[in-house]
Amino acid sequence: MATLLILLVISFSQAIARDTITQTKPLADNEILISGDGTYALGFFSPDNSKNRRYVGLWYYKHKERTIVWVANRENPVTNSTGVLSISNEGSLVITNQNSTVVWSSRMTTNVSNPVAQLLNTGNLVVRDAYADDGISTYAWQGFDYPTDTMLAGMKVGVDFVKRLNRTLTAWTSDSDPSPSPYYFMIDVRGDPEELLCEGSKKVWRSGPWNGIRYSGIPATLTYIGFNFSFINNEQEITYSYNTSSSVLSKLTVNQSGVLQRSLWVEDSGMWNVIWYWPIDQCDDMRVRPCGPFAACNPNNSPMCDCIQGFKPKSPAKWLYRDAMDGCVRKTKLDCKNGTDGFHVISNTKLADTSNASVDKNLSLVGCKTKCLSDCSCTAYAQADVLNGGSGCIIWTSELTDLRVFINDSYGQDLYVRLAAIDLAMQESNNSSFHDRSNQWFASGNDHLELSQKNDLELPLHDFGTILSATENFSANNKLGEGGFGPVYKGRLGDGQEIAVKRLAKSSVQGLVEFKNEVVLIAKLQHRNLVRLLGCCIKGEERLLVYEYMPNKSLDFFLFCKPKEEGLDWQIRFKIIMGIARGLLYLHHDSRLRVIHRDLKASNILLDKDMNPKISDFGMARIFGGDEVEGNTRKVVGTYGYMSPEYAMDGIFSQKSDVFSFGVLVLEIITGKKNRGVYLASGEVWNSWKEGNSLQMVDESMGYSYPINEVMSCIKVGLLCVQNHPEDRPLMPSVLVMLNGDSALLPYPKEPGFAVRSVPYQMESVSSKPNSSSTYDMSVTLVQGR
Ligand SMILES: *[C@@H]1O[C@H](CO)[C@@H](O)[C@H](O)[C@H]1NC(C)=O
Ligand SMILES: *[C@@H]1O[C@H](CO)[C@@H](O)[C@H](O)[C@H]1NC(C)=O
Ligand SMILES: *[C@@H]1O[C@H](CO)[C@@H](O)[C@H](O)[C@H]1NC(C)=O
Ligand SMILES: *[C@@H]1O[C@H](CO)[C@@H](O)[C@H](O)[C@H]1NC(C)=O
Ligand SMILES: *[C@@H]1O[C@H](CO)[C@@H](O)[C@H](O)[C@H]1NC(C)=O
Ligand SMILES: *[C@@H]1O[C@H](CO)[C@@H](O)[C@H](O)[C@H]1NC(C)=O
Ligand SMILES: *[C@@H]1O[C@H](CO)[C@@H](O)[C@H](O)[C@H]1NC(C)=O
Ligand SMILES: *[C@@H]1O[C@H](CO)[C@@H](O)[C@H](O)[C@H]1NC(C)=O
Ligand SMILES: *[C@@H]1O[C@H](CO)[C@@H](O)[C@H](O)[C@H]1NC(C)=O
Ligand SMILES: *[C@@H]1O[C@H](CO)[C@@H](O)[C@H](O)[C@H]1NC(C)=O
Ligand SMILES: *[C@@H]1O[C@H](CO)[C@@H](O)[C@H](O)[C@H]1NC(C)=O
Ligand SMILES: *[C@@H]1O[C@H](CO)[C@@H](O)[C@H](O)[C@H]1NC(C)=O
Q1: Which of 280, 307, 333 is the last residue of a domain?
Q2: Which ligand is the nearest neighbour of the Cα of 396?
Q3: Is the model's pLDDT at 483 over the cut of 50?
Q4: Most buried residue, 121, 570, 667, 719, by CB count within 10 Å?
């Protein structure tokens, strides 16, 4: 009796907990393997619940609704429940039916002694030597090398030249039939490699090439929280893979309609949520190809297709009827031999089809331009890798096809299209709003002496007299406030346009160098969350900067000076946070220059009439070149409360010091309290957050009418940004994603850093008197006393 009981217990526990098939223990139809941590199960199943079509498949053991993510014998079911999955002497996995006919077998290239098959926690079914288990190199075979329609974390899709593998995902034919449909997903290794979704021999969708961080055509993968994406492109392999943190369950699937879906498991609802899919719209769908060669697609425009600058419709009559499939042709022939051709840059593009493009990983962007100019067939170039300041060169020598433009400044990549000089000149005159008004007031006298020597400013120089009259001789009535380097005036030009004029104080810290710095910088930067510089003026000692006018002044005014009942509601606060984040993302990652602002604070965030934030004041900004990621200065400039510890203490500035200032701003926006003096908003928020009642810090002027989740995410992002160690702080791409994310998925912030007003510095100069009604806050310059 006792013996029988023990036997029963043993066989029962084996039935539920086994993850391994051995020669003596094959897997019968009524058994399953369960991975060690209980995530995955493997066994026989019928997609249509009939007993006469049995497949060996993999699913999530704990999920109520069964989602099959891998099938062994997808083309050859066992016709009744007599099938067995077993392992042969040499290590081949085989599925046999009752009369021992082999229905499916793993294709082994090597023999293995003492073979066992094990279902790993990752969902990978591997064959290995039972006595040699030191990782992936010892697997004689793995299911991950033969995906079905689903890519799991840790799986690689793409080509392994050494192992001679070409891993693709192929959709099921239908819900009840796992056999391969014509839809498949692969890595196209030609030209600059990219993801490709196909229907038979037809391309359905391409991702755009991998640029070191993401595919140029997949904006959303910037970085999902809890994900790592990797793209390997070398002699041995060209593969794409991703990992997730243990709390995130995700899959990438080609579904039966030929759509590539990224899904996330949501535990609370017990369901898969599709978080993104491709193709998204007509512009994405290569079967439609709405815009032919040399046309750019933008679904937000009407019509969707537009010829690239310097090109005109090939079939104007068809174009008129919105048929753009013939695409566009060059207006003016290239002048290759004479060397007068130039380049027009299109920003935020999903790069044109790269299957015929060539890539030189060793060439810089400048070298790339030279290479393109020296090759008469070159039509365009772009940077291959945007990481670490950028490297690598993609050259197109044929038509530019499947080109799309994103309206979002933080998406896509710059594409440099080669044009004849005359088409470039036309474009400049048409794009420049300055030129249109040049007759009225942009008289350029002898004033532009120093600047014009370098001649790298495509910026109008203003006549001092015009500005005098626009600002009513810099009258006190027109004064908007006192900036770090002098007063700012409102002005109105002859044509009625309102402007803001920054008049640099003669004694200002901002000398000619800083002045030029700011002018050159902002003139090159254009983003809807950066304030626009309209022009400048130098006359004798006078240095003036002309900006677009921001009717709503600056953020500090709204946050710290308005009576509580006029406070900003959450929607506007969130819009401001997102706008600043996008502006900063552009500065750090997406503009042609890599810019560190160095003086981000509430008074430098201006608000337009719709309360859109615009980052201003670039007098302190620095451009980083090459793979420079960190700078060091002996002259620490910035504003207390916003300065990261490493910057204030050691003069080290980087994207991470800007991220710190951004974090302070976010916390100020949420709490409505200023981060200065003895009161450190970040410290207070941190303390209440640790105690679990961070909502208590939310600006009471918002009442209780705000979405708690969104506010919580923002608080957490703010805290992550002000962490003491720069390496713990996120970069702006992650910040943007996190701001839209679920606060529960965000990492746990560490203690914030504080740059306290302390000993090792002396103030070199303070340029303005504090003024409570001032909307342009004061900056201080610190000099390291060591
Ligand atoms: C199962 O199918 C095999 C082959 O089709 C057949 O030989 C066998 O008799 C069947 N067994 C049962 C129990 O139906
Ligand atoms: C075993 O069954 C298959 C059908 O599943 C059949 O085609 C084959 O002839 C059978 N072989 C023997 C030896 O019975
Ligand atoms: C594996 O072993 C079988 C016999 O056990 C033999 O026929 C076969 O050639 C071997 N294959 C390799 C790749 O060594
Ligand atoms: C990989 O497989 C896909 C689908 O069969 C094919 O189109 C592609 O050319 C293959 N790639 C390589 C490098 O063989
Ligand atoms: C995922 O993790 C595995 C194992 O740690 C590692 O080999 C692989 O490179 C990682 N892949 C990515 C995309 O991070
Ligand atoms: C992503 O990669 C980083 C660095 O390799 C690692 O520290 C982190 O744990 C990874 N995250 C996931 C989700 O795999
Ligand atoms: C495939 O995915 C798309 C996008 O998520 C969805 O609209 C479509 O219904 C899916 N098709 C099937 C058969 O599930
Ligand atoms: C190149 O320059 C020569 C001489 O200036 C001119 O005649 C010719 O038209 C130019 N070629 C092109 C393609 O513009
Ligand atoms: C690539 O080149 C081939 C052969 O010249 C041509 O048929 C094909 O259309 C080109 N593809 C693209 C995307 O330009
Ligand atoms: C690129 O540079 C590396 C290291 O500088 C060198 O080993 C490699 O040969 C170069 N490749 C090409 C294609 O020039
Ligand atoms: C631009 O990107 C942001 C952040 O990813 C997103 O919230 C927003 O909806 C996008 N805007 C458009 C028009 O797609
Ligand atoms: C510039 O504008 C003029 C007049 O509006 C127009 O005729 C011309 O085609 C435009 N040039 C370009 C390159 O778009």
Answers
A1: 280
A2: 9
A3: yes
A4: 667
**Ligand 12 centre from 433 Cα, in Å?**
13
Is 240 found in the same domain as 339?
Answer: no
Does residue 252 lie in a domain region? Answer: yes
Q: Find out whether the beta carbon of 166 lies less than 6 Å from any atom of ligand 4.
A: yes
Is 290 contained in some domain?
no
- For residue 121, give both structure tokens: 């926690």
- Catalytic site positions: 599
- Distance (angstroms) between ligand 3 centre and the Cα of 25 equals 22
CB neighbour class for 778 (10 Å; exposed up to 12, middle 13-18, buried from 19): middle
Residue list, ligand 3 pocket, CB within 6 Å: 89-90, 110-111
> Using one digit for the tens of pLDDT, what is the confidence trace for 494-541?
888 899 998 876 655 455 666 666 677 677 777 889 988 888 887 777
| pLDDT recorded at residue 551 | 87
CA-nearest residue, atom 4 of ligand 6: 228
CB 85 within 8 Å of CB 103: no
Token code pair at residue 468: 């005098």
CA-proximal residue: ligand 9, atom 2 (nearest)? 356
Structure tokens at 38: 């209980």
Least confident of 113-117, 447-451, 493-497, 553-557: 447-451
- Dist. CA 103 → ligand 4 center (Å): 25
Ramachandran region, residue 248 (left: φ > 0; alpha: ψ -120 to 50; beta: rest): beta
Decide: 144 in ligand 5 pocket, CB within 6 A.
no
Which of 159, 169, 186 should be mutated for ligand 4, with most atoms under 8 A from CB?
186
Is there an atom of ligand 1 within 6 Å of 79 CB?
Answer: yes
**Neighbouring residues of 245: CB distance < 8 A, sequence distance ≥ 6:** 226, 227
- Decide if 207 contacts 278 (C-beta within 8 A): yes
CATH classification at residue 669:
1.10.510.10
How many other C-beta atoms are found inside a 10 Å radius of the C-beta of residue 761? Answer: 17
Q: Where are the alpha helices (DSSP H) in 397-511?
A: 421-431, 433-436, 438-441, 449-454, 464-470
Burial class (CB in 10 A: 0-12, 13-18, 19+), 323: middle
If DSSP codes are grouped into helix, strand and coil, which group holds residue 333? coil
Q: Are residues 631 and 776 in the same domain?
A: yes
User: What separation in Å is there between the alpha carbon of 192 and the centre of ligand 11?
Assistant: 27
